[in-house]
Design brief:
Helix content: 40-55%
Radius of gyration: 22 Å
Largest sheet: 2 strands, antiparallel
Number of helices: 2
Structural class: alpha+beta
Strand content: 5-15%
Low-confidence stretches: none
Number of domains: 1
Length: about 130
């Protein structure tokens, strides 16, 4: 494995976790919105990462954001201004606790990628120092 491979892997991991944190923040921000029409309800998002390469490890190759296929919450509240004719409002199916756990995991993964990047940097610096002493 080349030294640049370790940087590529760590940097792609950082990008993935940054995008994950942004997506989770968007889900949490939209979790309390209410709608009168089920078609207008915010659909929670998730980040999908994949790597098609089995031979070379160059980090994450494909990162995409997709909507979760989950039905919105239907809540009976006839006094709500957005209530439909039957007295129901619709809310995004976002579980705040689940989102917070995912957020903590993404932040920890981000920190781990930074530590791996720092370790790679130190190894390269040590190699340069050793070769200059020879």
């Amino acid at each position: 494995m080349m030294a640049t491979d370790s940087f590529a892997i760590s940097l792609s991991g950082l990008e993935l976790q940054r995008l994950t944190v942004d997506t989770i923040a968007k889900n949490i921000a939209n979790s309390t919105k209410t709608f009168s029409n089920i078609k207008d309800v915010y659909k929670p998002l998730e980040v999908i990462a994949s790597n098609n390469s089995n031979i070379h490890m160059n980090g994450i190759e494909n990162i995409s954001i997709t909507e979760r296929s989950i039905d919105p919450k239907r809540v009976y509240d006839p006094t709500h201004p957005y209530a439909d004719d039957d007295g129901f409002i619709y809310k995004p199916a976002v579980d705040s606790v689940e989102e917070m756990v995912s957020l903590m995991s993404a932040v920890r993964s981000y920190q781990a990628n930074i530590q791996a990047l720092e370790a790679s940097k130190k190894i390269i610096q040590w190699t340069i120092d050793m070769s200059s002493k020879s």
